[in-house]
Amino acid sequence: MSEHVLIEHSGGVLTLTLNRPDKKNALTQAMYGAMAEAINAAQQDNQIRAVVIQGSDSCFTSGNDVGDFVNSPRSDTKSPVYHFLRAICHAEKPLIAAVNGPAVGVGTTMLLHCDLVFVADNARLKMPFVNLGLCPEAGSSFLLPRLLGHLRAAELLLLGEELSGQRATEIGLANHALPAGSAVLQAAQDAARRISELPPGSVKLTKQLIKKGVAQVAEQTMDAEGAHFTELLGSADAREALTAFIEKRKPVFASQ
Description:
This protein is α/β, with parallel strands linked by helices. Helices cover 46% and strands 15% of the residues. It has a domain at 5-181: 2-enoyl-CoA Hydratase, Chain A, domain 1, CATH 3.90.226.10. The protein is built from eleven helices and nine strands. Strand 2 (13-18), helix 1 and strand 3 (50-54) form a beta-alpha-beta unit. The mean pLDDT is 93. Pfam families: ECH_1. Its main location: other.
């Protein structure tokens, strides 16, 4: 387990808390691995009825840790990233997210696999994959158009537009927008506890029916995205975009 992911089991609810405040909860391979292991173990634990993924009362996650991200392969099916994505894609028990502050990249795409999402009204959701010379991941190129329609998905993925939590709720990316801070975390816990008191067989079957056919296509999409992602990561455009990001300057892309 990673020291940067706090794991708590209480009253039928497993809570995974991203705990790397000095880096705005930027995700490392170790953090992905810890979350994947915990989520997979929860599927076999009859005492756990729901899983909450949260950050702090001011930050969900700024996305991938850039250094870890550049130096570690991420599309290999043996990688911690893939294990995490597959875990949230196929989780049989409800996944609930509590989002304060920034939710960048996978911080937003992981929400597409959650069953309930609570956000701060001023949360900042963004998927800047194209901006970094990359492509969508986590099955988002399939799940986002399915959820929002082509035009809104294109706006978010092609332009990398940032959404407030309020706007995310209005277009269907989240269930409720709440005042920032502890109210968001509490709402997720309350929903998880309500689920934990329901008949587990009915909860499991209902989730299966809701997601019937979706998880398989999402996983196939993840595999295709991963292959393209790895190829693009080695491209001149991605190198320039990531270097410019680190150097805090505007990238300059060569003509194709």
